[in-house]
Amino acid sequence: MAKCDLSIEMADGDRIVRGGERVRGTVVVRPDGDFNCKGLQISTRWETHGRGNIDSGEVDSVTAFEGEWRAGETYRYEFDLASGTWPPTYHGSFLTVEHVVRATAKLPWKFDPTVAHPFRVYVTSAPESGAPEVKAKSNGPIATFLITLFLIVFGLVFLLNPFFWCFGAVVAVFSGGWWFFRKVLPKRRLGPVEFRLDTPRLSPGETVRAELVVKPKKNITLNGITMHLHAKEVCVSGSGTNRTTHAETVHEERISVMAAGELQADKEHRFPIEATLPMRPIYSIDLSDNDIEWTAKLRIDIPRWPDWVEEQKIKVVPPTQPAAAAALLPGARDAELGNDAFAGLGEQGSNPSTPLPQDSPEPAGVSFEETVNLVWANREQFEMIDQVVEAVQGLVMNVSVDIERRSLYADSDEPSFADREGTNFLATYPDPPQPIMLHIRGLSLSQVADIERQKRWSGPAQIVGYDRDERRLLVKSEE
Amino acid sequence: MRMSESVELRSADGGSLAWLPLAHLNLRYNPFGELTRQQRAAAAVVETDELVPWIQAAEPHAPSPSAAEARRSTKACSMRALQFMGDCGRGKTTHLLTLQTQLPDSAYVYLAADAPTPAIPVGVPLLIDEAQRLPWLVRRRVLRRRVPLILGTHVDLAGPLERAGYRVRTIDVSEHLDARRLVEILNRRIELARLRPGELPRISQQDAERLIGRFGNNIRAIESYLYDQLHILTRTKHGKVRFVD
User: Which helix (H) or strand (E) holds B53?
Assistant: First the structure.
């Protein structure tokens, strides 16, 4: 059977594209038989892959050709189409968002040959809702009217039917019980509690700031207060009775706000809370069947009493600086970034396309700053990071980092970080903001407190590894 | 049967695309995730050679003007109905979507559990997925159309169909899964996610036998397991592909 081969050549190779930018290239058609093409459709679109039902949206399209194709000829059709502005390219566990150029030849009485070429899209702003500019699926006005009518009729039947009153009473008893145990009882012990999120909208690498205010009426002993920073992919597959929701945690961090202790009565206790978001492009996304949700959940653990729990949503949006947004994309180092990617970057930007030198780095004379710059520039290329880390191992460097807080980090693959003789600190290099796990041996309790208070540490240390999951450089110091 | 060597979504040669998480396996995305209807039809392994002529053997009749004529007509004609039965995840929808691609005048409708009954389209034959959800009145109207039917259903609808004058053929989709067929199903899905020309990881006959041993004929559970197995390989970026532990 005669075939019609399609292929796509991108004019700018593997370039990372800013959302809304034009994408140019050529669709090449090589038929090995005569075909009457009813339309060569070329489009830009985004689509999801993974555990959830596929969400997709067409962004721009053009019919490049209609007519006859002759066997053995090669036909070339140039295209110049707009790319999507939301959602950006994302590769997670249960969810992938991909932007593609797709070409489809409509051939009568045959399968329509289709070819798609993926390209990366970064964006510097997010829609308020987290949903794309065009929802993948939406009800028409008639369907919306019918659903509304159905709900009204259902509501009336509910209100007029005594059987449903009984049903409603049962629901009310259970809901009331839940509310009493989860809300009323904890407040009887704690008094008024306010959990305020000061930064409900922020970008990767930025700090979540919140405050908890508690004013108990009596002295109260607590097992502790923790905030749980959580990002998860939520994907829905199937529909109706086959509908299944898949959730996968993509970032999780537990911040200890207060260790076990006592809160005094009639005193306003204020707890400022800070946590840094990971430098990963995990943005809040809301599609029809595929979402990414960020939450901050605060728990006040009251001994032998229901805990006080409150959860607030956080909206994580792309950085407004193009270079920072583009550099977070997978394999950004390899790509030629868009022309305006570095516009307005100013002095704070590291060049995300800094290539790894062809020769292995020479350990002698290599500074910590140079090493961090190399790791940062290649942060999606784990093999290259491994090479860099291997090359500088054993080399003592002058290290200076910003301290975030202490960490147990007990599940590290690096055995020395689980060493009880030492203390682990979550830290960040100032510029570029490379996350670091710093392990210092031989600190006294007062020295640990000093480091936490000063929020900065400098001293001789060695790079001993790289945590791919946390994307942290593992640094060890023997004070 | 021939399916979709030309329907597959391939990446072009231009650009290395090494940034894709499964590029090292020559895959554009994890092939064991959800698919669109078109992709499911393209990846399906369904023997339609015999089914298509069987369902096309009867011609549609015009609606009968009176009840008496309808009864006479029912006896005279032999409308055909094909029903695919089986539990969730066994391939009923895939069968229907594949047959739809083979029948140019057909129409397909899916009856969702949590939505109002959609308008039943006009097509010959008419394919109705989750047909057990057809409300009685709508079912009566559908049967009065007197067109060949292809149904995916959890409930045996042979009784009402035969009473309406249909000659019914029932296929239990869960009976048809053996290792050879599973190999073909899974490798087609892998082929659909192909990134560029060249080698692809393949499910072997031995893998398929072990999967059937573990999950039975539940293809959805098998795909879910393989999704996780392949996802692990996005992190390692190296090593031999081993689908089944």
Answer: helix B51-56
- Residue A352 with chain B: CB contacts under 8 Å: none
A91 and A188 in a single domain? The answer is no
- CB neighbourhood size of A131 (10 A): 18
Q: Could you tell me where the beta strands, DSSP code E, fall in B154-220? A: 166-172
| Residue closest to A33 by CA, chosen among A72, A88, A65, A87 | A72
**CB-nearest partner of B18 from A49, A115, A331:** A331
Q: How many domains does chain A have?
A: 3
Residue in B30, B49, B31, B39 with CA at minimum distance from that of residue B4: B39
Cβ contact, residue pair A237, B113, below 8 Å: no
Are B9 and A116 an interchain contact pair (Cβ–Cβ within 8 Å)?
yes
Q: What's the total number of domains in chain B?
A: 2
Domain span at residue A374?
Answer: 355-478
Indicate yes or no: CB of A49 within 8 angstroms of CB of B11: no
Q: Distance from A442 to chain B by nearest Cα, in Å?
A: 35
- Tens of pLDDT, residue by residue over A449-472, are 888 888 888 888 888 888 887 788
Residue B65 sits in the same domain as residue B168: yes
In a domain, B203, yes or no: yes
Q: What is the CA radius of gyration of chain B?
A: 21
pLDDT tens for each residue of A411-453: 555 556 656 678 888 898 888 888 898 888 878 777 888 888 8
**How does DSSP classify residue A183?**
I
